[in-house]
Amino acid sequence: MIRLNVFIQVEAEKKEEMLQIAKDLVQASQKDAGCIAYDLFASSTRSDVFMICETWTDETALAAHEQAAHFQTMVPKIQELAKMKLEKFTF
Questions:
Q1: For the whole prediction, is pTM greater than 0.85?
Q2: Residue 40: CB atoms within 10 Å
Q3: Start-end of H helices in 2-91
Q4: Is 1 helix (H, G, I), strand (E, B) or coil?
Q5: Rounded distance, CA 47 to CA 62, Å?
């Protein structure tokens, strides 16, 4: 399995737009083959930090997700609005 933690830091004036795109990305990604979990979390201590936590069955499923239309359109939009940092774990 593969776990991705995607940390998102966004300025206050871009927060609502980023959150809507991230929620749409989560909803679409949960339907992808091989997706075990895909959730959006808000920091309890920082109002400008969020995390998308993803769990995939394998590299094939993750690669297919990264080629999906929703990923290809929504992730660049989030990157325009916020800073993103990725952590990847294989277990």
A1: yes
A2: 16
A3: 15-29, 59-67, 69-81
A4: coil
A5: 29
Sheet strands side by side (includes 2-10): 35-42, 49-56, 2-10, 82-90
For 3-34, what is each residue's pLDDT tens digit? 999 999 999 999 999 999 999 999 999 999 99
Structure tokens at 30: 């949960």
Q: What is the enclosing helix (H) or strand (E) of 57?
A: none
Element (H, E) at 12: none
Q: Where are the domains of the chain?
A: 2-86
CATH fold group of domain 2-86:
Alpha-Beta Plaits (3.30.70)
Q: H or E element: which one contains 49?
A: strand 49-56
b/e for 49-82, b at 16 or more Cβ within 10 A?
A: bbbbebbbeeeebbeebeebebbeebbebbeebb
